[in-house]
């Protein structure tokens, strides 16, 4: 039986393969470009050529980033704290794990990771929606440890733990978040004193008679006192939160609260300014994004020139040069609209592989790649060995056949009697279908047989005498045959 086994392609094979697939936006853009080219007397561009250029732009940008060292960050194992409980302590059974997509740090128990998988680990948001930003239904802030709700929306797990009406259907995996519909209308109407945004559900200061309201994530960002007490596990927790006025003395955060309020005020003023201009929702979002986005996507000219020389012949370089430059600009805008996410799924799922070669050698993905390359080499060597073995078997069989023919020729020349009587003997023995006379009689079964039969004979004895060339003439062979009376 034959089995089909998938062998992961090597880096060289992936480099030459077109992995980019056009979407509806690409089709619309290419149709508009082709209309302009037809008016100017140029040939239309095929979709395959467009996909090849976009694919090369992605991979050239990826290769460029590989030569850049990773951003310096604090050691995760020492200084990182859990995104949910804000505690950096960990145990063997409750370690802090880091998402390979967004790099958030969470405790196993806090986020619901009963077993740490081998290789990469992705949080729920990076696993289900890696390219699109998600919004929390309980607060206005982006980023953090997300989980899905029972009606397929997203919410911060931190928000659901501090809001008393919310709960988790499965305490082991801490998902999905349910009972959001049980949050009273009064909680939705509370206004956060930090961000001043009338969205989400707020909690209030744990100090008695204090009604100061704030979002959980706003309090975390402002450095307010948040404590999650686990009374034996995540199924019995107690959440405490204080405003800046009632925060314990050892955790005074007045300055951080003031800075956070200033930051939120600037963002709120920016949003109100856009609203006053009566811009549409799409233009408003683009305006805010451009104001907050510090860098613009610009691809180096050397990469564009390299793609032009590799993709165009001498006779059509002038026609396609401007098109490739336009595709490069379109690629920059598309990457910017996706928040810098790669347009190739393989390169987006493995963001850690964009490090330089010296850093990749210590990464699990590179080890897996090397292992696959070694296995591919071993497989190739085994296939070659299998072919050689088959050839050796065929050769030896032919040598055996040739040897038998040579033996038959030599036997016919030097021992003609044996060569003559051998086929006759085989015809005679074939008549004994029950094999009565094939082997000598057993003396234990017939005790007085050899006392009566002075010259015992069997086909086995006759065959041995033929093989050892003991018969000098046909008469001797005839005597042995008739001695047994086998012809009757």
Give a written overview of the molecule.
The longest helix is centred in the C-terminal third of the chain and has 51 residues, at 364-414. The model is unreliable at 70-77, 286-294 and 350-363 (pLDDT under 50). Helices cover 49% and strands 7% of the residues. The chain is mainly α and 488 residues long. The radius of gyration is 42 Å and the shape is elongated. The relative contact order is 0.07. The strands form 5 sheets. A two-stranded antiparallel ribbon has the order 1-2. It has a two-stranded antiparallel ribbon with strand order 3-4. It contains 20 helices and 10 strands. It has 4 domains: 17-66 and 278-362, no CATH class; 123-265, Zinc/RING finger domain, C3HC4 (zinc finger) (Herpes Virus-1, 2-Layer Sandwich); 363-405; 415-488, Bromodomain-like (Histone Acetyltransferase, Chain A). It has helices at residues 11-16, 24-39, 47-66, 76-79, 108-111, 124-128, 157-162, 185-188, 216-222, 254-276, 281-292, 301-311, 317-337, 345-349, 357-360, 364-414, 416-430, 449-452, 459-467, 474-484, and strands spanning 96-98, 105-107, 146-148, 154-156, 167-170, 175-178, 203-204, 213-214, 225-230, 237-242.
């Amino acid at each position: 039986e034959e089995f089909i086994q998938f062998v992961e392609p090597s880096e060289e094979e992936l480099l030459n393969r077109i992995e980019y697939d056009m979407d509806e936006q690409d089709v619309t853009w290419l149709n508009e470009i082709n209309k302009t080219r037809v008016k100017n007397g140029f040939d239309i561009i095929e979709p395959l050529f467009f996909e090849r250029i976009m694919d090369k732009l992605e991979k050239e940008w990826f290769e460029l980033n590989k030569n850049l060292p990773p951003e310096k960050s604090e050691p995760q194992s020492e200084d990182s704290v859990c995104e949910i409980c804000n505690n950096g302590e960990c145990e063997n059974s409750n370690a802090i794990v880091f998402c390979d997509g967004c790099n958030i740090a969470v405790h196993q128990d806090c986020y619901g990771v009963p077993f740490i998988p081998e290789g990469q680990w992705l949080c729920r948001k990076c696993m289900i929606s890696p390219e699109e930003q998600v919004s929390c239904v309980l607060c206005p802030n982006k980023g953090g440890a997300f989980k899905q709700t029972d009606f397929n929306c997203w919410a911060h797990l931190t928000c659901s733990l501090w809001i008393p009406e919310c709960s988790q259907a499965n305490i082991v995996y801490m998902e999905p978040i349910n009972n959001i519909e049980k949050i009273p209308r009064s909680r939705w109407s509370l206004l956060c004193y930090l961000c001043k945004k009338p969205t989400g559900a707020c909690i209030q200061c744990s100090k008695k008679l204090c009604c100061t309201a704030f979002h959980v994530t706003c309090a975390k960002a402002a450095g307010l006192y948040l404590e999650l007490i686990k009374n034996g596990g995540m199924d019995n927790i107690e959440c405490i939160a204080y405003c800046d006025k009632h925060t314990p003395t050892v955790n005074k955060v007045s300055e951080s609260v003031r800075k956070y309020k200033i930051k939120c005020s600037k963002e709120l003023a920016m949003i109100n300014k856009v609203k006053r201009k009566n811009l549409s929702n799409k233009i408003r979002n683009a305006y805010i994004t451009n104001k907050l986005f510090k860098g613009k996507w610009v691809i180096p000219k050397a990469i564009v020139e390299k793609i032009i020389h590799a993709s165009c012949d001498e006779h059509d370089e002038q026609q396609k040069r401007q098109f490739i430059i336009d595709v490069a600009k379109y690629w920059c805008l598309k990457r910017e609209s996706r928040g810098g996410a790669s347009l190739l799924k393989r390169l987006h799922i493995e963001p850690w592989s964009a490090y330089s070669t010296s850093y990749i050698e210590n990464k699990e993905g590179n080890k897996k790649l090397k292992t696959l390359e070694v296995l591919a080499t071993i497989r190739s060597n085994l296939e070659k060995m299998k072919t050689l073995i088959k050839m050796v078997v065929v050769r030896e069989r032919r040598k055996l056949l040739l040897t038998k023919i040579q033996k038959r020729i030599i036997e016919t020349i030097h021992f003609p009697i044996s060569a003559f009587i051998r086929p006759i003997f085989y015809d005679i023995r074939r008549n004994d279908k029950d094999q009565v006379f094939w082997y000598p009689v057993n003396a234990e079964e017939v005790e007085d047989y050899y006392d009566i039969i002075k010259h015992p004979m069997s086909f086995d004895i006759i065959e041995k005498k033929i093989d050892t060339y003991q018969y000098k003439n046909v008469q001797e062979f005839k005597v042995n045959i008739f001695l047994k009376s086998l012809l009757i």
